[in-house]
Amino acid sequence: MSGKYLLSLLDYFVFLLVVFVALFAMSFLSINEENKKGNVTEKAEFIIEMTWRDGSENDIDLWVAGPEGNIVFFGHKDGKFIVLDRDDVGINNTMITPQGIMTNKTRREVATIRKILPGTYTVNVMMFRNRDGQTERPKITIRQLNPYREVVEKEVELTEDGEEQTILTFDLDEKGNITNKSEDYISLFQKAP
After folding, report:
1. Rounded CA gap, 55 and 129, in Å?
2. Entry pTM
3. Neighbour-count burial of 113, counting CB atoms closer than 10 A to its CB (0-12 exposed, 13-18 middle, 19+ buried)
4. What's the CA angle centered on 79, arms 76 and 81, to 5 degrees?
């Protein structure tokens, strides 16, 4: 009787081993190249970057309007194909990590245009809150990535809360060519939702 019992137990364990190996093989086969790549990286056609004085307590905002009427800013960060990737509020760039308290004094905002959609684009900056009363001189760089070139690099002065300036308005054709550049002021704050 004990021999039959051991034989049954051995059959049971062999069966479990076969099931385990089969499940492992199926899970290994389900891994494809797309999953191996890791994080999804979004394609971008343009990067709009604004930097200002390191350690500044002032909150300066980047505003971008596209041809569909979407305006991207701190209150509306995702406008379909235009995205505010980083919003810097100026004062609270402190993180608590296992290694301790880390402070990032870099002041930077970044927006991306992820698709070439023909039409008119406007890039503005606005002094949202001047906490220390000092004039800020943010530098704004607009880069086209495909093919790479700097469209504009400009520094402006902002002092008062709510002060807004247009960096560039430009038209984009279906091939990604930039035409009709203008620095004439167009308020995006008054048009925002």
Report:
1. 15
2. 0.72
3. buried
4. 150
What tokens appear for 88 in the block?
């810097």
DSSP 67: T
- Rounded-to-integer distance, Cα 172 and Cα 117, Å: 7
* CB proximity list for 55: less than 8 A, separation 6 or greater: 105, 107
> Would you call 169 helix, strand, or coil by DSSP?
strand
Q: Rounded to 5 degrees, what are φ and ψ at 29?
A: -70, -25
By C-alpha distance, which of 154, 135, 153, 155 is closest to 144?
153
- Residue 182 vs residues 32, 152, 169, 186: alpha-carbon distances, Å: 48, 11, 5, 10
* 48-76 pLDDT tens trace: 999 998 888 888 999 999 998 889 988 88
